[in-house]
Amino acid sequence: MPRTWFITGTSSGFGRHLTEQLLARGDRVAATARRPETLEDLAVRHGERLWRARLDVTDTAALREVVDRAFTQLGRIDVVVSNAGYGLFGAPEELSDEQLDRQIATNLTASIQLARAATPHLRRQGGGRYIQIASVGGQIAFPAMSLYHATKWGIEGFWESSAAELAPFGIGVTIVEPGMARTDFGGGNAVLGEALPEYADGPSGQLRRVFAGELPPLPAPGDPAKIAAAIIASADQAKAPLRLTLGSDAYLLATAALRQRLEALEAGRALAYSTDATDATAS
């Protein structure tokens, strides 16, 4: 049975792939983007099954208006996909206040505000599904990406908490954690802070040389079309998987990071227990 999807950031990357595949299989898509004209070819091909709206997700008032309008005009939306986002690179002191604020506003605050705007509609219609396009960067951390990781770790915590709150309403949540994929994430959509000479020989400087073509590009094994297909398939499952780790690099990196954290946690077990009050009963 065809479904209706609401997706942010559909002009390129995963958002574009999701939109193309969903329309091709007969679903209806409410596609939002800062440049919705980039979807004109899909509008010509699929007609009324593609609903478009211009949206900068950092404009909370506009986001709420677009969400309300989409639910009103389309009647029901089955899946809400928070996809808009980008990468910000550089050591913290290389970043401007404006860059910091916009990274958090786009990657973190906008996703939370989308949930706040859509949840009342999903509750009233008796359920639905949220899909958050996050990153394996919500499980691991690399130098020169601290602000990006802050947003991805933050959205992981938000959705893990919210998933339990939304379950009684029949609303499922899936956090998608792709690795490096062959999109524009590390290319045209990347934003760099101001280069400081003190960081030239460190990870920040090396990353700049990668983007400048002076060093080999970052490996990107992920196929965005296959990732989009896996995301769509997850929405067809009766029970939403809380996390969807996609890409061999994502799997290997997350596995190593979780094992290291667990080993460190277990090594500190005696210290953790030693700080309990004398009358506390540990399980």
From TrEMBL:
Keywords: Oxidoreductase. It comes from the Bacteria. CDD domains: 17beta-HSD-like_SDR_c. GO terms for molecular function: oxidoreductase activity. InterPro entries: NAD(P)-bd_dom_sf (IPR036291), SDR_fam (IPR002347), SDR_oxidoreductase (IPR051911). Belongs to the short-chain dehydrogenases/reductases (SDR) family. NCBIfam families: PRK06482.1. This is Short-chain dehydrogenase/reductase.
